[in-house]
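User: My collaborator sent over this chain with a note saying "see what the structure looks like." That's all I know about it. Can you take a look?
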Amino acid sequence: MKIIFEKIECKLWLLGSLHIRYPDFPQNFLPKLYRSDAKDVSLHSNINYLNQVKLLASSAINLSLAGFVLEESGQHILLENFIEYFPMLEKFCIYWNDKNIPPCKNYEKVLTSLQKFPAFRELMFYNLPDNFNIHTFLHCVKHIKIQFKTKLAFMNESSEAEVENRLEEIVDELNKTKNFDYCPTLIWSYTLRKLKLRKYAPLESKIDQYLKHKRLNL
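Assistant: Without extra context I'll predict from the sequence alone. Here is the result:
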């Protein structure tokens, strides 16, 4: 449904879902907002200001962010420095931007913060560049003994063979591991998902079994 904000005379109280996918954030929207209790929020503008994200997603249990998150001063703020504002989250998805400027650098801090959220279930990193430091991320997941689902998605269909081979080796190693004391990371790429499903599917099944076992033992 298309809404013409200029013709709205009352304040808006958001419930349910909010999805903003305009390249430029609609500035005429915020003056009309009274309150946001939206539970499912996607903010995919090229630039999102932290005060806007906090206002729109303070009650969110599912949050998806793309583009840059900036402070009011215009300075880029990393995920690890604002994730604590959203303790109600159950699922969080963040997209790497086209300029390959990482939205976070301290994976251990991000994962540790999310581990403390009472109902958190899934962290997803999408559109990862080929130079993403996957070994550092996986080390943090194992070291902290993460108990929620993590997913890394490499969306580049033209990734170099060296990158795909490295991802395949990691998946092979995870598939060979019989017992985990943490939830292993699901690794997605076009090659693994479409051409080598026989390797991708067992890892996905292993993760599902781990989480199911965890729920049964709560």
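A starting point for your reply to your collaborator: The chain has a mean pLDDT of 87.
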